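Before going further, learn to read the protein records used in this course. Taken together, the tokens spell out the fold as the letters spell out the chain. A record is reproduced here so that you can trace the correspondence yourselves:

***
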Amino acid sequence: MKLSRWYFPAFVPIVCLLFVFCGVLPQVFVPQKDVNSLRVASEVAEKNVLIASRKSDFKEAIVTALIDSLNPERVVVQVTGIKDLAKFPAGEFDAVVVLNTCMGWSMDRKVKSYLDRSGEVGHILVVTTSGDGAWMPSEKDREYDAIASASEKTRIEPVTSRILQRVREQLKAE
């Protein structure tokens, strides 16, 4: 019976480590691929928008729709992968859209690092996809806007519309 007392104290740290590794390991060992970098500019562009994303059918459809909608509006659209996001300071853009994936119950660590470095710029929108579309970053100390969605084809148009609405609000505010 005395032996069972040792199991509980040893079991708690093991379970905690398991949760930590379940959140970190998928991002380190099974990262998603990034979208291809691209810059689309109209002849008389007045505003700059950065879109950063990983590669998936859902995210690529949203990126394409955003480019198609913003290009006629005198907006330079810079598209980059999450891996290269740090090369584009948020302060150099009028609006920033980051298409993020929830892996292991947290946002992409490169996205989190970018948000931490960006500080209180106030014009970043993080769109997070997850299995059921319900996972959102914590609102505690959050200096950016956020949208959550499942990666379903039926959600492409409504999510794109919400993103465009918020980006246009930011472009008007600048």
Notes: The domain at 38-173 is CATH 3.40.50.360 (Rossmann fold).
